[in-house]
Amino acid sequence: MRFLHTSDWHLGRTFHRVSLLGAQQAFLDHLVNTALAHEADAVLVAGDVYDRAVPPLAAVELFDDVLHRLADAGVPTVMISGNHDSARRLGVASGLIERAGIHLRTDPAGCATPVVLRDRHGDVAFYGLPYLEPALVRDEFGTAAGHEAVLGAAMDRVRADLAERAPGTRSVVLAHAFVAGGEPSDSERDITVGGVSAVPAALFDGAHYAALGHLHGCQTVSERVRYSGSPLAYSFSETRHRKTMWLVDLGPAGEIAAERLDCPVPRPLARIEGRIEELLADPALARHETAWVEATLTDPVRPADPMARLTARFPHTLSLVFAPERTGGAAPATYAERVRDRDDHQIAEDFVTHVRGGGGPDELERALLRDAFDDVRVDTAVREVAG
After folding, report:
1. Using CA of residue 361, residue 364, residue 369, residue 373, what is the dihedral sign?
2. What's this protein's family per the entry (predicted)?
3. Mean pLDDT of successive 10-residue segments in the chain (387 residues)?
4. Domain check: are 326 and 369 in the same one?
5. Final residue in a domain of this structure, among 262, 279, 299
6. Buried-most residue among 189, 202, 313, 341 (CB within 10 A)?
7. Residue 386 in 3-state DSSP?
8. How many CA atoms does the CB half-sphere of 133 hold within 13 Å?
9. How many folded domains does the chain comprise?
10. How many Cβ atoms sit within 10 Å of the Cβ of residue 87?
11. Same domain (yes/no): 289, 165
């Protein structure tokens, strides 16, 4: 049995306010073409189809289009809801859509009812475990409100169903969770409950393959437990990610052979750091002039018009971070220590020095601060007299 494992499409999401609809369309085109070129027996989508519970119309249209294309191509598709999706909305008309070979699994109560596909070696049971929010599903599973408890109970149901099936039935589980050993990025929404978000990979014991979603980096937790990652980068923390899908061959005895297939890259990402004059002059940075850029400026004093100057060389700069170099050798005192026994004007000057990493205000800025405080004092005095 050959299938494509993907997840975390996040249809409708932007990248620092830049629309990604065109890039998402290109990925879905690539997905359909890849499924056909590699003669995949199924496509798996392990949650976060959409970026939010009520997606924009353009995102829904992308989803509708890819479902029609997969159904027309005769490629069975199994997908689950993730923590970004509205399970109820995603699951609307799932019974009707299933007749076209598109299997939406969004109801936790149905986690032990698999989609059964058959190849020349026998049955493969695909179990879809939608994202299980502990506080909402603990009554369904009769457990405590914790990720490990509810996911463990769901897997117990899966194993019980599998035990009733014909000997030799192979099994694949789709789940949307943070599994211990996985490497997160800044893009995933926090799913911590009671200080704990990660669950052990051993929860999936008994399944021949666990197709995971939620973490955006493609990674192998174990031979049989893998994240496909998101097909596109959704934060600069993913700059070093290689965006791929897993092409998995499941052998007659449950053997796993997995290959990473690259996804289209709409534009590379780059993180650059240094003083602004260095960034504008360094010839080694020429390769980033067509990339989406996050620039961290280390100038001791914030330069004038930094975004305009950077975009003159790096026109796709989307994020600007200030991390001024510290001046002097001694470790700075805490802010509370620096403002103790200081008057308002001195506190304001100290604040400027603090946020700049040691570079205090110049004479013009000092004059502006004095004028501002003078105006406040005059206004306060007038109000007191009037009152």
Report:
1. positive
2. Belongs to the SbcD family.
3. 98 96 98 98 98 97 98 98 96 94 97 97 98 94 92 98 97 97 88 77 97 97 97 96 98 97 97 98 97 97 95 98 75 54 75 74 85 68 47
4. yes
5. 262
6. 313
7. helix
8. 13
9. 2
10. 21
11. no
* CATH label of the domain that carries residue 192: 3.60.21.10
Query: Do 255 and 273 sit in the same domain of this protein?
Result: no
The CA angle 93-99-100, to the nearest 5 degrees, is 95
Nearest to 320 by CA among 329, 330, 332, 311: 311
Q: How far apart are the first and last CA of the chain?
A: 83
Half-sphere exposure (Cβ direction) of 69: Cα atoms closer than 13 Å: 17
Tell whether the torsion through CA atoms of 348, 351, 353 and 356 is positive or negative. Answer: negative
CA-CA-CA-CA torsion sign (68, 170, 158, 181): negative
User: DSSP 3-state helix, strand, coil percentages of the chain (rounded to 5)?
Assistant: 35, 25, 40
22 and 102 both lie in a single domain: yes
Mark whether 103 and 234 lie in a shared domain: yes
Same domain, 37 and 13: yes
CB 140 within 8 Å of CB 157: no
- What does R_g of the chain's alpha carbons equal in angstroms? 27
DSSP string, 270-282: EEEEE-HHHHHH-
* 8 Å CB contact between 106 and 81: yes
SS3 39: coil
CA dist 152 and 84 (Å) reads 21
Residues 243 and 336 in one domain: no
**Considering only CA atoms, which of 18, 32, 199 is closest in space to residue 6?**
32
CA–CA gap between residue 170 and residue 136 (Å, rounded): 30
pTM listed for this prediction = 0.83
**Are 120 and 183 members of one domain?**
yes
State which of 210, 233, 262 marks the end of a domain.
Answer: 262
* pLDDT reported for residue 384: 41
DSSP per-residue codes, 273-335: EE-HHHHHH-GGGGGGTTSEEEEEE--SSPPSSHHHHHHHH-TTEEEEEE-PPP-SSSPPPPH
The range of the structural domain enclosing residue 339 comes to 269-386
| Rounded Cα gap, residues 83 and 168, in angstroms | 33
Which helix (H) or strand (E) is 257 found in, with range? strand 256-262
